[in-house]
Amino acid sequence: MTKRLILGVFLAVALGVGSFFVAYRLWPDGGQTEAQPDIIAERDQLTREEAAKPRFEGVVNGIRLYSLDAGPDVQRKDACSDAKPEEAEELTMSDVAGTPMEIIPTYLPPGAEEVAPMEPPVACKGIVVNVQRWWAMRGKGDFYVSRRQGEQAIASNASADRVSAATVGGKPAVVVAPLAPDGFGQSTVIVAEDFGITIVFADGLPIEETVKIAEGLK
Questions:
Q1: Which of 31, 37, 115, 136 has a CA positioned 20 to 30 A from the CA of residue 143?
Q2: What does pTM read for this prediction?
Q3: For residue 166, which of 205, 212, 202 has the smallest C-alpha distance?
Q4: Where are the domains positioned within the chain?
Q5: Torsion sign over Cα 61, 101, 189, 16
Q6: What's the alpha-carbon Rg for the chain, to the nearest Å?
């Protein structure tokens, strides 16, 4: 992978985690739970109601949430924000082992199995800016954990009534609830870190499970 492509892919992933899960909520062997017509209708209604609400933009617990379609001057800043292609570097998980950016879960939901990461760790100007791991539960959903260097900010598409302040693992955090208690509509936990933020983004998990994953991260 070229360094220009590394930088471009990192920026796309950083801005489009939500879109990724909408488009690629697939178990590797194609296993999915077939939804019933009444459930489909209920979820369609929830989706329409959410779409009609204004998106939340603001600062909660010191973490800034901004629109997915925000311009470059609004997007979060990190070591890759103004990096040249030659300053971007693709790493391996062993390169981040033992650092604060390493992702070590102590709790996983029943049935969770790790899937190959969407992209390898990325560094810019010698600074590790993004590390991610991804798990799936056959026919139930999946979740993604990312650690990002830089500003404590994240692109979000949630309405205000889904966003709340929290404390996770003794650290300031933001919780974005799913549209339904079973986890439909995606949930997110964003935790403030000395290096930036840790994100747990889940589809198909109750918010309690998403928070429990975040609380169990080392």
A1: 37
A2: 0.83
A3: 212
A4: 3-215
A5: positive
A6: 17
